[in-house]
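Protocol step 4 of 5: obtain the predicted structure for the target chain.
Materials: sequence only (see below). No template structures provided, no constraints applied. The aim of this step is simply to have a reference model before the mutagenesis design in step 5. Sequence pasted as it appears in the construct record:
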Amino acid sequence: GGGLDGNAPPARRLSVTSEEDVEGEGDFVSPREGIFFCTLTPESPHVIVPSALLPNAVTSPYTLTICSAHEVTLVEFPATQASVLSGQWSTEGGGCNLHPTWSSNPKFLLVVEEPGSFKVTLTVDKGAWKRGKSLDEMIGFCVFSSSKPDGKTAPDRKAILHETSYVPMKEVSLDVQLGLEPHPTYVIMPTLYAPNLAGRFTVSVTSEQKFHFSAI
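Step 4 output (structure tokens):
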């Protein structure tokens, strides 16, 4: 099991895009303890949100404990707005910009309400990287500006503002500075190094600034 202490009411703002993203919730039957049993899959990270029954009802430290027969890692979100979305690459197209199918990779729309620093993280769940594993599965992503509010523009190498190197790891992240000019809309495009490879991933954005994050 693992534990996490919360000694002060956090100022985090977590974005849940729809009720379909909620995998379950506990019952508010006790003022001292809440218990929730669930079965989770390892394909993507999961978010736990401790809460009281009513807003502004109580201010108190708490302890969050996870009990599982399998290894679990519990990571606390920073005191920022955080949004996590999942996606997958197809067996058709994709790959890095060396391939003509680069523009067919999945895309996510980031709309900035306030200029500032944003941390973007791409995570895949394929187990620990082992020697001899194909470098075709290296991961990376780019961030480019979009003149359209819905972000539905053809990716252009000239429009890329930030991009990672391709790395043989499960996770890669980038701290980027984004503003409101000339457009407050940005597109994040995760890619594998080689095309025609299927895989699941999550993309998270955290910032002290307000933003909206959605799949295109």
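Step 4 remarks: The first strand starts at residue 2 and ends at 6. Residues 1-13 have pLDDT under 50 and may be disordered.
Proceed to step 5.
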